[in-house]
Fold this protein.
Amino acid sequence: MSTAERSAAHEVAGVGAMLLGCIADDFTGATDLANNLVRAGMRVVQAIGVPAQPLDSDADAVVIALKSRTLPVEEAIAQSLAALRWLKAQGARQIYFKYCSTFDSTAQGNIGPVTEALQDALAGVPGSDFTIATPAFPDNQRTVFKGHLFVGDVLLNESGMQNHPLTSMTDANLVRVLQAQCRRKVGLIDYKVVAQGEVAIRERIEQLRAQGVAVAVVDAISNDDLMRLGPALKGMPLVTAGSGVAIGLPGNFGIVPSSTASTLPAATGLQAVVSGSCSLATNRQVQAFIQAGHPALAVDPLRLATQGATGVDVVAEALAWAEPLLNQGPVLIYSSADATAVKSVQGQLGVEAAGALVERTLAAIAGGLVTRGVRQLVVAGGETSGACVQALNITQMKIGPQIDPGVPWCHAHTEAAPREGLHLTLKSGNFGADDFFSKAFAVLA
Ligand code: ADP
């Protein structure tokens, strides 16, 4: 879409540049949604928490990343409503509440209660009495059939999610799961309706409305389903979904996929990878990077734990190691280790203490690397990314081109890189191909 066409779309949409205002219940989930919107042609800014100031850049969509998935219900609602107020104040035409594609929630919520609080807050806006709910994301093997969520070839409650420590999912029937969290009546728009397209979906919505249904789970087993669903959601004040539904929404605002949506400032500076993820995928990526001949330094959590007593300064050591190497190409600093090693460390330090110690250290190293001229930073690990972004005092990121599914490059302003800002990519554990680290820098080049 040309600039002229884009501003025309904005004019049609009304005052304020923002078309879609999104509220995501966790950090990497926010990036996943932003990435899908960019691929569908929207210029997207991701905000870390509810911004204190009005939006200062041009964006078709803003995704506010909260950490509300497992908060007590009242806190999750309060944060989500604060995000809604900010988005509405920026002129957002449609609100998108984004949750995990495995519908991660406890028996109390928070998907149902947050959805209803948003509906309550939007009461009076025509159409806000009805919304949809679907975590379908076929590109990531999440499909919904007859209201039942499949992860790959198995039902949600057989996918491993039944054992999740915080949000154990023991029922794949999302109508039942959501109804247990909602005061409002929950219904279903099934695959037969979705297959017929926009008109049939709208008719079904009216039918459900007449039956007193306020939230409908929607079947989708392919991207075609999501593309058929998109037009039927045009004008719906609130949409709730995983990141999949996002692929069908930009078209409602006259926006079509284009590479300009993902344009970032030109990349400059030195390159580094900081990895605190211990997932199987990340461990493979660390090995592939080392095998490709790049310098790599392992951070040992047990040395970290004793550095007060031994006088060792692991952060200073790591930065001194990296400094002479950075001019020759990307370096890797990692705590990533296999499950046996991690278990052993956790046994000695405690799970949370070990996690927090490593996160703090890697974040300080990331900060030090940027101070030393790194302007292209890859961070592996969801919690590790959160710690690094916090240490760099980053509050907003412009979303750029995708490296691998779900993981885009971003550009952010930080005091540590005052002039040109920082290109960074935040990779959650299991995302990315084995050559992700090398590929990331190639994509930016
Ligand atoms: P992922 O996205 O793969 O879940 P995270 O960064 O979210 O990665 O979580 C990894 C957690 O493990 C972090 O809290 C990190 O500090 C911790 N950690 C990293 N390396 C080690 C290690 N060698 N031993 C124990 N814990 C570690």
Q: What stands out?
A: Residues 7-15 have pLDDT under 50 and may be disordered. The domain at 264-444 is CATH 3.40.980.20 (Molybdenum Cofactor Biosythetic Enzyme; Chain A). The chain has two domains: 3-257, 264-444. DSSP finds 16 helices and 18 strands in the chain.
